């Protein structure tokens, strides 16, 4: 398993509220995009990463991987809610998209609008659905894909970790095949770079580091108005 990751503050924001976790030995990869209050977003995303890292320390092959992820995210949610009671952190929360490679499969836990993509056999598949107001409008046919890309409310989330006692978390599982590439990213990438462009970059004859850098540079060239985080894993 090979992996490369990069986070960039972007060209507009002063602080980076994104965080990520890369642990190839455990097959554990996570991106989190914080939100809310002065420094609240950075605190929330950092807490989520820390808790997931602590809860999934070693491969638990006898346990259900989705259950492991669920337990970790619920614990993170509880701690973020508790910490969010303080005045300067009120209203903070975070997206989380986590992937765990176990038992020949990729287990995904997801809440918010960070994304997981699978690149296999020159095809790109989005494994997650954005929990956002704009995506709800899109699914209901209220707006087009083009309108969604530039919608003024595209950053409004309908779900996030740390915003309610019992968060609704999505789970998906897909087989892991040799040569697969898994891409985790925050919306700082997906709001600027289209799926077709992501597919083109992943198909290039370049190493993972070059692919990740190319994707981040594309987002920066389009304005870089948000933090950008990319984690790219190649399964062997």
By CATH, the architecture is named 4-Layer Sandwich
CATH topology: Phosphatase 2c, domain 1
Mean pLDDT: 92
Strand-residue fraction? 25-35%
Q: Number of domains in the coordinates? A: 1
Q: Which superfamily, in CATH terms, is the homologous superfamily? A: PPM-type phosphatase domain
Write out the strand line-up for the largest beta sheet, numbering strands in chain order: 1-10-9-6-7
Query: Helices and strands: which structural class?
Result: alpha+beta
* Coarse shape: globular
Query: Which CATH class?
Result: Alpha Beta
Secondary structure topology:
Blueprint: E1 2-8, E2 18-23, E3 28-35, H1 40-55, H2 65-83, E4 93-102, E5 105-111, E6 115-120, E7 123-126, H3 133-139, H4 145-149, E8 170-175, E9 181-185, H5 187-190, H6 195-202, H7 208-221, E10 228-234
Antiparallel strand pairs: 1-10, 2-3, 3-4, 4-5, 5-8, 6-7, 6-9, 9-10
Helix pairs in contact: 1-2
Descriptive account of the structure:
This is Stp1/IreP family PP2C-type Ser/Thr phosphatase. It comes from Thermanaerosceptrum fracticalcis. This protein is of the alpha+beta class and 236 residues long. The chain has a single domain (2-234), classed as 4-Layer Sandwich (Phosphatase 2c, domain 1), CATH 3.60.40.10. The protein is 31% helix and 28% strand. It has seven helices and ten strands. The chain has helices at residues 40-55, 65-83, 133-139, 145-149, 187-190, 195-202, 208-221; strands spanning 2-8, 18-23, 28-35, 93-102, 105-111, 115-120, 123-126, 170-175, 181-185, 228-234. The strands form two sheets. A five-stranded antiparallel sheet has the order 1-10-9-6-7. Strands 2-3-4-5-8 form a five-stranded antiparallel sheet. Helix 1 (40-55) runs antiparallel to helix 2 (65-83). The longest helix has 19 residues, at 65-83. It is globular, with a radius of gyration of 17 Å. The protein starts with a strand and ends with a strand. The model has no long low-confidence stretch (mean pLDDT 92).
